[in-house]
């Protein structure tokens, strides 16, 4: 979706207010979603049938690495609202579908054209939560398909980017992994091993 010329001209003349919107859609029955409006003087924002509640929202620049993209998002955990959800339902945020959009408002808070413009789409990973805020990485969905992040490379050892991430899926108490098959056996997590032990370390192809 692209911006029409009338919106572009108003942006250039500072006649419109731009604000980010974040929607986190949880995977599972009856869980629903969280909709956040970048903190503002408005308490909430309605677009069509959806309501977005205002809260502190920080978004990093896009990071590009080996064919995948990600951004980091920090949300307020004021009143332990988010940690309360996790405490009740478990970690339903990791793996959730995330949509970051931008909306343009007039001075009176009306939504221009009653629509938002997509900025970034992906899945939540690397959840971190404190008393004050919740931080997640949103890892990109590429080409219309959900991509395993990072895109798979091939090697004898585990290729997942980070221990205990959405792909590794280890949930035990251990804090160390050397990415070897034997260590994955020790952690009883072999079903999620991201390596290819049968591959030769060196191969010569004669043509």
Can you describe what's shown?
By secondary structure, this protein is mostly beta strands. The protein folds into two domains: 5-151, no CATH class; 152-207, no CATH class. The protein contains three helices and ten strands, in the order H-E-E-E-E-E-E-E-H-E-E-E-H. Strands 1, 2, 3, 4, 5, 6, 7, 8, 9 and 10 form a ten-stranded mixed sheet that branches. Strand 9 and strand 10 (133-140) form a beta hairpin. The radius of gyration is 21 Å and the shape is elongated. 22% of the residues are buried.
Give the secondary structure arrangement, pairings included:
Blueprint: H1 5-12, E1 17-25, E2 33-38, E3 44-47, E4 50-55, E5 57-59, E6 63-65, E7 68-76, H2 81-89, E8 97-105, E9 111-129, E10 133-140, H3 181-186
Parallel strand pairs: 2-4
Antiparallel strand pairs: 1-2, 1-8, 3-4, 5-7, 6-7, 7-10, 8-9, 9-10
Number of helices: 3
Topology as a string of helices (H) and strands (E): HEEEEEEEHEEEH
Arithmetic mean pLDDT: 77
Based on Cα principal axes, name the global outline.
Answer: elongated
Oligomerization status of the protein chains: single chain
Pick out its properties.
single chain; 207 residues; mainly beta; 10-stranded mixed beta sheet; 3 helices
């Amino acid at each position: 979706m692209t911006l029409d010329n009338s919106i572009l001209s108003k942006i250039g003349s500072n006649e419109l207010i731009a604000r980010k919107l974040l929607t986190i859609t949880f995977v599972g029955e009856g869980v629903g979603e969280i909709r956040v409006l970048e903190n503002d003087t408005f308490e909430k924002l309605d677009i069509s049938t959806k309501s977005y509640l205002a809260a502190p929202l920080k978004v990093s620049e896009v990071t590009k690495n080996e064919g995948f993209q990600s951004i980091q998002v920090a949300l307020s955990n004021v009143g332990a609202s988010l940690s309360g959800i996790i405490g009740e339902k478990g970690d339903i945020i990791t793996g959730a579908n995330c949509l970051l959009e931008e909306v343009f408002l007039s001075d009176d808070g009306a939504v221009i054209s009653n629509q938002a413009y997509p900025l970034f789409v992906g899945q939540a990973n690397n959840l971190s939560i404190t008393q004050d805020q919740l931080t997640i990485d949103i890892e990109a969905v590429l080409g219309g398909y959900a991509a395993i992040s990072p895109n798979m490379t091939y090697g004898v050892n585990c290729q997942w980017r980070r221990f205990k991430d959405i792909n590794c899926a280890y949930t035990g108490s251990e804090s160390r992994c050397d990415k070897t098959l034997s260590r994955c056996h020790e952690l009883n997590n072999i079903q999620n091993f991201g390596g290819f032990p049968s591959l030769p370390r060196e191969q010569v192809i004669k043509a």
